[in-house]
Structure to design on (194 residues):
């Protein structure tokens, strides 16, 4: 993507705490990601929701002063650090309470690094958000259904051609165009390098 964009990324726009529509969009995208991450780290749903709320609250308090500095790292790395720390603190508090009552807590398997787990869940959440937006944009059109069948459901090209009365070249073209639309939507959300 070129250095010039016509629309700032969601992450750039969310720095304005008074922009409620942007914060609602950010919340709708990131709250489920944060909850899934906290659950993947062994927290129950209620604790995971608390983690997400605390994370979003901290972000709202600090976003106005966040300045992107390529030397210091990306916004998404900053967000990942915040949520990982909140989850660790939550485990620590829970462990301390359990130790005080004589109970032992089984912690999640730490074979997967929490930072890697968060990045994977964040990427999946952003892609699914973009797919949902595309589904809405392309409602009633064959394009989304062909893309979904090929990429998400794993249908063969032959089956798609037969079911939707399209050619192999049309399937390939749709896969390419919709894939590019998703990449553009992802860049609108988080930028290509931030």
């Amino acid at each position: 993507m070129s250095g010039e964009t016509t629309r700032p990324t969601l992450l750039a726009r969310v720095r304005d705490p008074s922009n409620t529509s942007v914060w609602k969009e950010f919340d709708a995208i990131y709250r489920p990601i944060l909850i899934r991450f906290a659950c993947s780290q062994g927290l129950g749903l209620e604790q995971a929701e608390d983690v997400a709320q605390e994370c979003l609250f901290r972000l709202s308090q600090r976003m106005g002063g966040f300045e992107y500095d390529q030397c210091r790292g990306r916004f998404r790395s900053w967000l990942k650090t915040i949520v990982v720390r909140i989850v660790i603190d939550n485990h620590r508090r829970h462990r301390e309470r359990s130790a005080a009552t004589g109970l032992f807590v089984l912690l999640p398997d730490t074979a997967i690094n929490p930072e890697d787990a968060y990045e994977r869940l964040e990427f999946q959440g952003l892609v699914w958000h973009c797919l949902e937006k595309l589904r809405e944009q392309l409602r009633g059109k064959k394009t989304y259904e062909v893309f979904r069948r090929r990429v998400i459901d794993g249908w063969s090209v032959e089956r798609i051609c037969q079911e939707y009365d399209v050619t192999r070249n049309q399937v390939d073209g749709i896969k390419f165009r919709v894939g590019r639309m998703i990449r553009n939507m992802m860049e609108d959300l988080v930028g290509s390098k931030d």
